Amino acid sequence: MRHLLSLKDFSTQEIEQILSIALDLKIKLRQGIREPLFPGCVLGMIFQKQSLRTRVSFEAAMAHLGGAAIFLADDAGFGKREPICDFSHVLSEMVDLIMIRAKRHEDVVEFASYASVPVINGLTDYCHPCQALADILTWRELVGNTTGRKLAWVGDANNVALSLAFICGKLGIRMSIAVPKEYNFSDEALQQIHDNAPGFKLEVTQDPVEAVSGAGVVYTDVWVSMGQENEKAKREHDFAPYQVNSELMSHCPEAYFMHCLPARRGFEVTDEVISSPQSAIVQEAGNRLHAQKGAVVWLLRQK
Ligand code: CP
Ligand code: NVA
Fold it and tell me: Strands, DSSP E only, in 85-169?
């Protein structure tokens, strides 16, 4: 049995398998085929934070696969009402698979250590693996082969950026990040990025123009992630020079724009860029459904 907590725990071949299942099921869905690969299978979904894409994509994915999903919001009491070990043991008795969006990554790791069914990380403060799978699926649909191409991240070195660094490392994609010094990855995370794919060189700069030059994708995310609301004023000030706008995109005219969403238009990205023909955000968000299916099917086949 395997969990999907971070893409650094997955080999290149395993990531390719997940992406391949995702693409196959997406093509079939377009043909009107919804194969009930796992009839009656139930996914438990724990949410400690808000969600649109993650919740709906997992729920729809389970319905398409012939199963069902149960949404557990804060009133289920994760991390509050009973010890994590009890929560995990009990939920494992009742469902076939668990997805969890938690405030603290350590809680998800602890939860998974007690679970007797596969656990999927649906976003923590540390990383967001499902998002990165959907992102690469999208980029490949747009350009075919992504090997050797460059993804530029502009903004906070956050959970989404870390998962992208892991997947880029595993898939031979170059990555450059423009980030204010104090918001760069921690030394520990930089070490993990290196260990994840020795030979992968993450370029780090404070210059957004340098980062986007030669890039095939320019990616950004909110400056204030969920849970960082008390740092809002400082972050908005510090990240102001890192806005993705038309001037910045003029340095990489061939690049697509990507964002995990939700976006704050006028802050990390202008309306003009996010609504431009270069913007891949809708396809990217839609691909969460297919990436989720790839992950679910892959994990259930390992059981
Ligand atoms: N990108 C993403 O995970 O969106 P939600 O927060 O809406 O799930
Ligand atoms: N970095 C954002 C991503 C949301 C999908 C957050 O953690 O809030």
Answer: 97-101, 119-121, 150-154
Report which of 209, 215, 277 is spatially closest to residue 248, judged by C-alpha positions.
Answer: 209
Please give the Cα distance from 190 to 36 (Å, whole number): 41
Q: Residue 159: CB within 6 Å of ligand 2?
A: yes
Assess whether pLDDT exceeds 90 at residue 151: yes
State the burial class of residue 119 (Cβ atoms within 10 Å of its Cβ: 0-12, 13-18, 19+). Answer: buried
Helix (H, G, I), strand (E, B) or coil at 52: coil
Q: Kindly give the number of the ligand 2 atom that is closest to the alpha carbon of 227.
A: 8
Asked, as a colleague might, if the bond just before 118 is cis with ω within 30 of 0, I would say no
**Could you give the CA distance from residue 258 to residue 267 in angstroms, rounded to a whole number?**
15
pTM of the model as a whole: 0.98
pLDDT band at 66 (very low <50, low <70, confident <90, very high): very high
- Give the rounded percent of residues in the chain with a pLDDT score beyond 70: 100
Distance of alpha carbon 286 from alpha carbon 119, whole angstroms: 22
For residue 201, the model assigns a pLDDT of 86
CB-based contacts of 90: which residues, under 8 Å, 6+ apart? none
Query: Of residues 174, 221, 235, 290, which has the active-site annotation?
Result: 221
